[in-house]
Amino acid sequence: MQYFSLTTIGVAFVFLIISNAQSWKYISIDPVNGENTISCASGNGSIPCKNLTYAFALYQSWTQFKLYPGNHYLSNGSVLLQNAMLLSISSIQATLTTVFCLNNSGLSFFNVTGINMVGLHFVGCSALQISTNQNYSSADFTLSMQLVGIFFNQCKDVNVSSVTVSDGNGATGIVFYNTIGSIVITGSSIVRNTANGNLSTNGGGGLVVEFSFCIPGDNFCPQRPFSVLSNRDSFYTFYNCTFAQNVATGSDLASIIPYQYAHNTFGSGGGLSISFNGNASNNTVQIMDCSFVNNTAMVGGGAFVHFGDNALENDVIVNNCVFLNNKCQLIQPGTSGGGLRVEHYIYSNAASGSTNAVQFHNCQVVGNTALNGGGLSTSLSGTINMTITSSTFNSNIAQNGAAIEASLFTIVDGGLFEIANCSFSGNSVNYGSSNAYPLGVGTVYINGVPVRFSDLLSFDHNVGTGVALTGAEADFSQCTVVFESNEALNGGAIALLGAASIVVDDRTVMQFYNNYASNFGGAIYNAFLGTNIKTYASCFIHYSNHLIDPVDWNATFVFANNTSGQRGSTIYSTSLLPCTRSKGPVLNISATFCWSSRWIYQWSSCAKEIATDISSIMLPQSSVSAIPGQLFQIPLLLHDDLNHTVPSTSLLTATTSNTSVSIVDPQYNHLSSNYLIVSGQEESDNMVELTLAGEQVWRVTFPIHLNRCPPGMKLDSTASRKCICPALDAYQSSLYCDAQNFQTYLRNGFWLGVDESTNKLVVALCPPNFCYVNQSGWAFKLPQNDSELDNVICKPQNRYGVVCGNCIEGYGPAINSLKYECVSCDGSGFSVNLTKYIFTVYVPLLIFFLIIFLFNIHLTTGPANGFIVYSQVVISTFALHGDYHIPLYTITPYSDRLLKAYQVSYGLFNLETFSSILHPFCLSKNMNTLNVLQLSYLVAIFPLLMVLTIIIIIKLRSYRCCGCGGHSTNRIVHMVYAKIHFSPLHAFAAFLLLSYNRLCLTSTYMVNVQPLKDEYGNLVGSPRPYYVQTIDGTSTQYILEYKLIGAFILLTVILLPPLLLLGYPIRWFENYIVVRFSCLQRFYPVDKVNIFLDVFQGCYRDQKRYFASFYFFFRIAVNVAYFMTDTWIDQYNIQVVLCAIMVLLITILQPYKKKILNYVDIAIFTDMLILSLLSIYLYERADYDPYSSLPVFPYVVQYILIFLPLLGMVMYIFWLLIKYVRNVVLRHSESADIPSLDANENADLGKVVAAEFTSSFAVDDIFNRADGGNSYVPFGVVEEMINDQKHEGPNGKVPSASIMQLSERMNLN
């Protein structure tokens, strides 16, 4: 090979000009002062021509064109200078002279020897020229045309100095076709020559040098078996040149295999394109101190070098150049070489050992981008020597080979590809947009090309493996290499794929620091396909001398702080078996890569940092269970060569042996690791055969059983045969179904289970606190199996059975709980708990009713009416939490305590005492909820028993005790009775008023049945008792007895009083039935009934006395709604309607005599209305957004409203007590005027009793005082009896018999 210096070339060219100075013809061009006449062609240049077109027409050999400073113009096509020698075009002065090309014009040289161009600036040149590229749009073989600024065709010896060619309009700046000899381009700039932004057309680019197979324009080229061109011994030099912002495009670039006439250089080399084709040989291209900046091409964004056909012994030398921010446009696959692309497509060498060579030395390759080889890309065949030395590659981007990519075109026969003394930093394989890009590999990526790394190399902070090899061997035997802080998918520093390997020897030092792989092999990754039984020679790391045992290797490996996302923090390999060789007869696989102290790891146990692919699989011992259509994990235990657990592998195929079962959603076959989806008939069995693949392929067979669909889901009847979700309104809208995760959720307050008689899945409303309630959400997760439903729904509440109606063994229903919760009965004994029950239930009731009875407190009139209704309703059917359908616990963790606070406060008015404050306790584990309801009946009738007891005691006043002191004792008994003022009518009314709601609620519990409904809302099985679904050892007759008791109380105690109150004002029963049938008067004492009804109706206006029944009907309606509605939202809506009706009726009818009482009850029912509306809001809010906490404000408003009636009543009673005390003082002062009875006189006891009754009723009938004193029924009777008394005894005294008669009438005997 021949190398020439720039000085030699320049001296020879100048000597040639001087020695023939007398033969030169001078033509000057001055666009200002010149003239286009024959005078300017004199040859001495004294008279300038005016324009270039006229001047160039005068050219001949030995002509120098001198251009004056200023703007010159070429127009109307290409100016052709041909068949001449020694043509020079230059500027007269050092000032740059500009030549503007108009109307697709340019400059063309053909067959000219000795061309000199100096100090010119060509702008916008783009003349149409022939090319060597086949026109693939034509059916016949033709060569394409192209646009070129300055065109050299078959010329020789060219010098271009200080020339700028820019802004070519869709044209290539300069083209050299088959131009030989010495070509020197120095200090020149080729910039902004583009294809008008249209990347689908041919053209553009900076400068093209081509030694072609075909003669440009020769359409008979395909008929020639060889090239007729020689193209030998040329020397091209580019020195201190700039190639910037050029764009080269070509539509047919990737559609051909470059061979002979099928070459296509369009779109190759955005800044510079060099092609050696045909018979080109012994040519040299030297590129020194040049810059390639922001150029774009389809191949070789900055520069392009191509060797083809029989090109031999050609050299390209790139020295001390900069490749910055060049890129390849990704229009089609194969665009490579963002900075530089080298192609060596040589199919056979003419002479043995002959080769082409590329030297890339001391260059900076920064910020270039391509699909392959962001900095440099090469594709090799034949014999080539390519060396990359002392260069830096920084911040380049490509999918494969961010800095360097080398691939094999055909077999490389000899030659050398070497990378020496280079550094690679900040390069990335994340090629594409910022949001989506394919994952690439390799800062340096070598595919099938033998490569040698030598001297000192460094790889740091690259994204993508430092060095990635596919089927290639990399020789590190003369190298010190440092890999630091690189990251990749697999192999942070080195990735060896296929049969790739690295060679080391005693001069090798490899250091790996802080590298990371998101999958496998933080430092080194090795993967190959096929069996894991390999020979030692195939180990991916081997010594240059295969005879040396690994224990004796002198190569040094240092690993520190390397990590991986999955396995093999330092080294990962498909298998270690090919590398297991050490001294001694025993194969010690755990010692692999831990052979000597030259293998330095972070941990003392190096095996912790090494992992392999699967080497063994443990199958499940029994059948695998799965749900039809659900993604499930395959229960395989996988281990690697070092017995480490392998967490997952890739599933390639899966098949089943049963035609009723199929593998569905095949996309999971590749996306998941050890997951599978199987569909088919429920409760079916079959075999599944899997093909698993890591780097090795495994076939695994195991049995599988398809379970029933999760509770609430059902098997799709279509071909999919997988479990699907039911309709949204299925199962009373109690289920939420997550189809993606095959998971169902049950709303709080519902029960779900299997009906044993029909084997259907059924749903029912659950009694309060019987079923599990999720304290942190509106629903809870159901198990995957029907058999586990009881454990999830009932067992947390210590229950089991349908709607969790039974307590588990050893537990019984708490007798002091409003929720009938099941508690342990193995603690305190029966007598202790019974004592607690009596003292916390009956003793408070005894005191409460004694106060009411003995002080004759009237509860049936005045403001007590609405307050008692409110008290009973808000703690029974108006539950703010909606049986925990409204998650108040998301507002405050003390919600249950706050609920209990108002329940206890209002409890006495519903006969709920303070027992609920105590920890729940039971009497016996043999009790069930029906037994507790029996006790509830007993509590409800306890006030009635007290009334009867008091009546019996008072009856004893008419009898004289033995030894009693005659008239004096009798008088004292009557005086005590008179002071007590007990009224049986008011006592019985108080019992009915306070026990009414409890009796109604308990009886409704007794008779109500809980329907079990299937998916479609159809009733399933026979109706069950609401609170006890299955009673062990209890017959249906036993349950029937409870129902009959409840029904009897509902039809008599519950329904009869409001009917009587409704009918009494029109006296329909009395006037039309009792009066006509005198025999009925025995069973219907008209006088007593009327007096009793007046107790309830005395505070109402005469025309509105029927309104007293509405308060009872309101209780009935609320209780009926509570039991008949399926959801709490329906219950709340009915409550709103009922309260609104009551408010409307009271507002319109104004039933009370005193207006203030109308306003009080309107306020009370409005309070209940607002409570219900707020509950509806909270319920809907929880249903709409079940995962968020409820707002605090509505709940605070509810809590304030619920205590307002109680606060008002307390204030009212306090005011009455003040009045009572004042009246007592007045009464005692007035009692001194009443005459005392002498022991020997027959005093008028009737007057005394009347006087006492008069004075006491003035203050004791505290609720009656508010209604104007119109219901003094007992006193009215007494007054009437005294005033109408016509017989007087001796001395004008009232006989004792009359007093007894009066007393009897008062007591309605």
Structure report:
The chain is of the alpha/beta class. The chain is 26% helix and 28% strand. It has 21 helices and 77 strands. The strands form 14 sheets. It has a 45-stranded mixed sheet that branches. A four-stranded mixed sheet has the order 56-64-63-60. Strand 1 (25-29), helix 2 and strand 2 form a beta-alpha-beta unit. Helix 9 (966-980) runs parallel beside helix 19 and helix 10 (984-1007) packs parallel to helix 15.
Strand content: 25-35%
Helix proportion of residues, in percent?
A: 25-40%
What sort of overall outline do the alpha carbons produce when their principal axes are compared? Answer: elongated
Please mark out the parts with pLDDT under 50 across 5 or more consecutive residues, or reply none.
Answer: 532-536, 665-672, 961-966, 1030-1035, 1236-1309
The structural class is: alpha/beta
Any idea what the radius of gyration is? 55 Å
Could you tell me the number of beta strands? 77
Through-space gap between termini: 145 Å
How can the largest sheet be summarized?
A: 45 strands, mixed
Mean pLDDT: 79
Number of helices: 21
What attributes characterize this protein structure?
single chain; 1309 residues; alpha/beta; 45-stranded mixed beta sheet; four-stranded mixed beta sheet; 77 strands; 26% helix; elongated
